[in-house]
Design goal:
This protein has 382 residues and is an alpha+beta fold. The protein is built from twelve helices and twelve strands. The protein has three domains: 58 residues, no CATH class; 179 residues, Transferase(Phosphotransferase) domain 1 (Transferase(Phosphotransferase), domain 1), CATH 1.10.510; 103 residues, 2-Layer Sandwich (TATA-Binding Protein).
């Protein structure tokens, strides 16, 4: 982690830097990234040769990337493989609890992998020693319902809720719900304990009875009804057969080759000469489509709206149609985009139709890639 120390314009970033440094100095666990060095005042060379004042943390190198890339690009994990990583995550959280820490931003992107594909928990900028907090820290899709409701929440319990969402994604390749919020159509089934309806929505994912039982007990709306860390460790699913380290290395070496192959294809495509000029010369497609396994088109539309809000993009959501219009200005380029959600006949699939109405073709492609990546965190794509 580093930031430009010559521009002390973001006090939150500086606070997170110091918070992460102090916490990582106090942590030593095989499934937590190690801190090797801290420099509050150092220099780096820019591409133009000029010096820049920086502060940085030198952290253990996770050469195999993060779990999000593996799950999104190479498919769901078997329960034995998912159990291997869930054991390591729970071990890291249990260790942090003995030090009175809670992470508060658990998600697959913060679960890194070393050279032998062992899990390394990272990113401690939101970590706290508070037992109970009212600070809304973390990533929406992994927040517990009480946290989303801006109520006081137990930080350790919030971490376990996020861990449950992660485990669900590892086994199914898609989230259990968009948010643990009463307005979320899938989380409503959790709140009302309509578990048959909940699992009917996820019927494409063939999972064991023990897995379903663990998830229902970790997702409960009432935190008092959720499993404690010790109860999770004693649950039959947690105690089931686990992939060996040898199995993990063999399987993930193959998965990594697939990721590297996809990256080379992407880099080759990106290396082609570009002629933008705000699309006066139209050499790029005007429409992209992507299918998602989503029962309700509103789920996709609402996530596109959240994407726009998170990135401060101007948008207008249609009241009568599954449609969002985006108007984006970035680095001197402009683009107007129409995002439509269509239903595939006779199937419970939704097609995202991303249409460039006018403006920069390159910016249009960039935004589509961002939207697609955002949606793939929430839904299974085809």
């Amino acid at each position: 982690m580093k930031f430009d120390a010559s521009k002390h314009s973001n006090p939150k970033l500086i606070e997170m830097f110091h918070n992460e440094a102090e916490i990582m100095k106090d942590l030593d666990h095989p499934n937590i990234t190690k801190l090797y060095n801290i420099a509050e005042e150092s220099t780096a060379l820019k591409e133009n040769g000029k010096e820049m004042s920086i502060s940085y943390l030198a952290i253990e190198y996770a050469e195999s990337g993060d779990l999000f890339d593996f799950i999104s690009e190479t498919g769901r994990f078997s329960e034995k493989v998912a159990r291997f990583y869930f054991h390591q995550l729970i071990s890291a959280l249990e260790y942090m609890n003995t030090k009175d820490y809670s992470h508060r931003d658990l998600k697959p992107e913060n679960l890194l992998l070393d050279g032998e594909f062992n899990l390394k928990l990272a990113d401690f900028g939101f970590t706290t020693k508070e037992d109970v907090s009212t600070s809304r820290k973390g990533t929406y899709g992994y927040m517990s319902p009480e946290l989303l409701a801006k109520e006081p929440y137990n930080c350790e319990e919030a971490d376990l809720f996020a861990a449950a969402v992660i485990l669900f994604i590892l086994v199914t390749q898609h989230p259990p719900f968009t948010r643990a919020d009463p307005v979320d159509p899938h989380y409503k089934n959790v709140m009302s304990k309509s578990w048959k309806n909940f699992w009917d929505v996820h019927r494409d994912s063939k999972v064991s009875t023990d897995f379903k039982d663990l998830m229902t007990k970790m997702f409960s709306y009432d935190p008092k009804e959720r499993l404690s860390l010790e109860q999770i460790k004693a649950h039959p699913w947690f105690c089931g057969k686990t992939a060996s380290s040898k199995d993990i290395i063999k399987e993930f070496t193959k998965r990594q080759k697939k990721i590297n192959k996809n990256k080379k294809k992407s880099e080759k495509k990106d290396s082609k000469p570009k002629n933008d000029k705000d699309s006066k010369v139209e050499a790029k497609p005007k429409k992209f489509t992507k299918f998602f396994d989503v029962k309700d088109g509103d789920d996709l539309i609402n996530e596109i709206v959240m994407f726009c809000k998170d990135n401060e993009y101007k948008y207008h959501k249609s009241k009568d149609f599954f449609k969002v219009d985006l108007s984006i200005k970035q680095s001197g380029s402009r683009v107007r985009i129409s995002a439509n959600v269509l239903k595939k006949p006779n199937e419970e699939l939704r097609c995202l139709e991303f249409v460039k109405e006018s403006g920069s073709a390159n910016l249009y492609e960039k935004v589509f890639s961002e939207v697609k990546r955002h949606l793939k965190k929430q839904f299974k794509s085809l």
